[in-house]
Write a structure and sequence with these properties.
6-stranded mixed β-sheet
């Protein structure tokens, strides 16, 4: 999934790599192959690989603002910037990425929306920081929930590491006969709406079973990762 020339958002580039792009580094890496895969994709998108800023998620609610002089890797569950030609990235393999943007400031954000961060509130926290930092109203923010594991494949156990984390979201739990499935993208969408973001869209692609070939930890049980990315090209 790669989007460019998005109506209303000139210069915006966002997307999620697939297996055809090759495995990407989680942050820094000694693998020349993974680095070459990432840098090749970034260059193809029109960005300078030296201008990447990649998040190292904590699965909490940590937000970092990316400036022109920021380092290439930041401890963060969400990155945001209004610096043109800086590409924000995060490694993903089932976790959803949420992309925020506003054309009035050409500001963007990427949120790592794994289930731990989602239940801890990273999405509304990031929206509030984005609104405050760039002086925009919620109605001026556009949000896209990227590919990730969907309710068809996100089965959880009825224990403290699974179903009990979603007791506040009963409307997003389905199943029967002792099986429980969680609509994580649905929870994220609801959180965005509650935070005041009205322009919300969803990719709907499941990284676990999509024919597009995303990386999936749930399916493959390995360390291979893709990257999610967003940035504004300078016009």
């Amino acid at each position: 999934m790669i989007e460019t020339d998005i109506p209303g958002f000139p210069g915006l580039v966002r997307g999620v790599s697939t297996r055809e792009h090759g495995s990407m580094p989680r942050t820094t890496s000694t693998s020349e192959v993974k680095l070459a895969n990432r840098n090749g994709l970034v260059f193809h998108l029109g960005f300078d690989p030296a201008r990447i800023c990649q998040a190292r998620p904590r699965h909490e609610t940590l937000v970092s603002f990316v400036e022109d002089s920021s380092e290439s890797v930041l401890e963060a569950d969400a990155l945001m910037t209004d610096v043109p030609n800086r590409l924000l990235t995060v490694a993903t393999a089932d976790c959803h990425s949420v992309f925020l943007c506003t054309p009035s400031r050409k500001a963007v954000a990427i949120i790592h929306a794994g289930w731990r961060g989602v239940v801890r509130g990273i999405v509304p926290v990031a929206v509030e920081f984005f609104r405050w930092r760039y002086g925009v109203k919620q109605r001026e923010i556009g949000a896209l929930i990227g590919p990730g594991i969907q309710k068809c494949c996100f089965e959880v156990k009825n224990d403290e590491n699974g179903l009990t984390n979603f007791v506040s979201w009963p409307g997003f739990i389905s199943g029967g006969n002792g099986r429980h499935f969680v609509d994580l993208a649905g929870i994220v969408s609801e959180q965005l709406h509650r935070a005041g973001v009205r322009a919300v869209s969803k990719s709907g692609e499941c990284t676990c079973c999509s024919p597009l070939g995303f990386f999936s930890f749930r399916r493959d049980k390995n360390s291979l990762r893709g990257i999610s990315f967003v940035g504004f090209m300078e016009s």
